[in-house]
Amino acid sequence: MCDNEKEEASNLKEEFEWVLREEVHAILHQLHSVLVECAHRFPVPLYGNEGQKQDKFILTSQPEQLKCIVTLTGDSITHADISFKVLRQMHTICRTSINQDGPWKLQQIQDAANHLQQAIGYIDNVDKHYVFRSSEEVLHIIQCLIGSLQRARTALVLPKKKAIDELMKSRNMKALSPNLPEDLAISFYIQSHKLIFVAYQLSSVHGTMRIDSCQSDCAVPWLSDVLFMLTAALHMCQQLKDKVCVFSQYKDFTVGSRSASMVFN
């Protein structure tokens, strides 16, 4: 190896050591701040956030097919006055309600919160004085973070919709007061920054089961904030991953010795 190559290798290793010693911790600290702020926007108890925030929304559709006045408390609809026109019987209006004795659970909110809590935990488990010794160590924690953050975002953006028979047998449907007729069903779920309400009607047409539906939605302000922060955090993780990957080809690069323990769950 010529002198220029030795000098280049020495400079590269010095930069690598600086990234592991300084920049990784700085970015993890920034990420931690973003994720804690994100946690504090959730309406459920999460990382020091008291939760149980309450919001009220009105969902309607034109031409007045349905109307729903909803109170969202934490991750549940604790009250709702619901009315909608029965499809193909437009003069028939069906009314039902949700009350605190049988709230409608929006599991997506709690699932997203759990994944966010896990991501924050990965950073909390890294001692601020820990000396990273290789790119593999850093890439491992980044992948853990990306996985948790992607799952948190997916829980809100891509709802797992239930089959109609599963929905009609659900605990949420059984808690409605009064209960709906057997050929009617409703559903609430989160999709991106919106709360969605759907009314379904089942009918048999020439022996074939047919499902008609109408729906309405409304924006939930805190969801927009949460999704923005999750996306920003994922971008920060990807930038750090890309930078560290540049050095991952240098398997013989190591730095110092371990100064503190670090646990990955």
Structural overview:
The chain has 265 residues and is α+β, with helices and mostly antiparallel strands. Helix 1 crosses helix 2 (107-124). A hairpin with a 2-residue loop joins strand 2 (66-73) and strand 3. The protein is built from six helices and eight strands, in the order αβββββααααβββα. The chain has helices at 3-41, 107-124, 135-157, 164-168, 171-174, 221-247, and strands spanning 54-61, 66-73, 76-86, 89-98, 104-105, 184-191, 194-205, 208-219. The strands form two sheets. Strands 1, 2, 3, 4 and 5 form a five-stranded antiparallel β-sheet that branches. It has a three-stranded antiparallel β-sheet with strand order 6-7-8. InterPro entries: RAVE2/Rogdi.
Low-confidence stretches: 256-265
Structural class: alpha+beta
Q: Approximately what portion of the residues adopt beta-strand conformation?
A: 25-35%
Tell how many strands the DSSP assignment holds: 8
What is the straight-line distance between the termini? 42 Å
Net shape: elongated
The number of helical segments is: 6
Element-by-element helix/strand order: HEEEEEHHHHEEEH
Radius of gyration: 25 Å
| Main sheet: strands, sense, barrel | 5 strands, antiparallel
Helix content: 40-55%
Mean pLDDT, all residues: 86
